[in-house]
Each structure stands twice: as C-alpha cells, then as structure tokens.
Amino acid sequence: RHLITPHFVVEGEGHVDEIPSMPGVTHVSVDKLVEEVAADVALGLKSHLFFGIPDESAKDHVGSAAVDENGVVARALRALRERFGDEVVLITDVCLCAYTSHGHCGFLEDGVVVNDASVEQLAKMALTHAKAGADIVSPSDMMDGRVGAIRELLDENGFTNTSILAYSAKYASAYYGPFRDACDSAPQGDRKSYQMDPRNGREAVFETLLDLQEGADMVMVKPALAYLDIIRRVRDEVLCPVVCYNVSGEYSLVKNAAKAGLVDEANIVRENLLAMRRAGSDLIITYHGRDALQQGWI
Ligand code: PBG
Ligand code: ZN
Prior knowledge:
binds zinc ion, eight-stranded parallel beta barrel, alpha/beta, two-stranded antiparallel sheet, 298 residues, binds ligand PBG
C-alpha cells in the first residue's frame, strides 16, 4: 500500500516493449496496459501513475496532444476505470515535455521557458485527465503557480474531488537520464531554469509550502535516494502525505549492478525502499514494486 507503480503508455496496439534504458520496464499500449495493471493488482499494487508517450508526429511547440480528450492517457484512464472500477487509484503525470517538439516541460519562447502561458496549458491537461477519470493529477513540470491554476480549473468544472499530488521539490538531476530515453523527452538545453538546484535544501521547504497554499493534497520529493535529507526535512514541516520518487536512474543503476553480480538485488531494493520510508515518505513511486512483490523481497 506504500507503493505507486509508473507506466509508460504508447500509441498503437499490442505493444509491451522493454525500455532499453530501464530493464524490466515497458512501453505499453492501452490494450496491453489493462493486462499489465491486472497483473499488478493481483500482486497487491493498487496505485498507478501514467506517463503518456505520443507518436513523434503528434508533437508540436505547445504540446497540443497533451490536452486531447482522445490522447493516449485519456484513453488509458477510461479503459482502466471500466475494467477495474474503484479497485485502483489512477494518477496521471501532468507535464508537457513528452508532448512538445522541443522537449521542455513548458512553452518555449525565444529559447526561454515561459512560466504563465505554460501554466494555462498544464491546467487544461489536468482537466483533460480528470474528465477521463483520473483520481489524482500530478504536475511534474515545476512551473510556478501551476498547482493553484489546476485546482481552480478543476473546481470550476466540478472536479472538486480530484486530488493533486504536487512534485514540489523536484531537483534538476542527472538521475532522470533513463526516463528521458523512455519518454524521448530530453530537452534542448537543460531544465535548470525551472527544476531546483541540488545545492539548495531550504528551497525544497519553500516550494513545498507554496504548493500546499495553492491547494496541493500531497507533496513530493524527487529524486529519492540522493535526497533523503530533503524527504526528512519536508516530512518534518508538513502534515499532509509525503511522497518520494525513486527515479529511473536510481532504478537502472541497481538493476544493472545486480545483473552484473555486484550487489544482491533483493537486499539492496529492500534496503533502499526502507531508507525512503525511514526518511519520512508515506508513499514511494518506484519501478521496483513489481519485482519486490513477485519475488517476496518485501
Ligand atoms: C518530466 C519528468 C521527469 C520524470 C518524471 N517526470 C524527467 C525530467 O524532469 O526530465 C523523471 C522520472 C524518472 O526519472 O523516473 N516532467
Ligand atoms: Zn516535463
């Protein structure tokens, strides 16, 4: 019950393709996603996070496919809700980087990511997901003010019960490398103008408190293992649930080291997950969940 499992949803049919940079994690089309989630539910994994990966041809400057009511995430949500009802918790990633031609999480003007125009599009994306049945929307873009804008647009449209899990303290990290391969979302340049500076711990608390003021229901620290101190700090500051994201780089390092026989996978995964809980995470987004339960590591 402490684990959230990410899925990378692609267009088409019949796809369950292993992502080369993330051993054991797949690109999955909606038809096969229903089976993937069914298997996870049988293991006890109830909470799921969805990243949409549109076809290359659908990408444009403003990420139009992100607000398409027949986009890949919206279709996935409808299919899953129909199949599983309230047995599952459906969480969606709200961000433009997989949908924009330039790979940035917001709009790009004259080579600069512009905050406010991006926020409007992100709120529309969240509404699209809420309409399609998301229980929780989770903005990972790191624009200022997006939590408030999302909350307002959801409420105006009657989605007062859709929750917001905010990526509050998201650092500009090298640990996202495998994910950017998976989502084909490596930006032109970097994300340092909107993601946080790893040298700054206090800003994590500042950003978290802002997100709560704007209406976040849960807050997140990301990555997890290199930021356990931040998880603890945030845990000690807030009363809402704290979530951490055990990101792709953290996952793939462990997987590849285990494959090479350098570490014992069961023990290292257990130790890492326990460390995240000990640091203060109520919930952990991790790619290890399926293995951990299947193999009885936890
Ligand atoms: C993009 C996003 C990223 C992740 C989740 N959402 C990568 C980034 O900011 O470049 C990282 C997840 C992972 O590495 O597992 N908004
Ligand atoms: Zn993004």
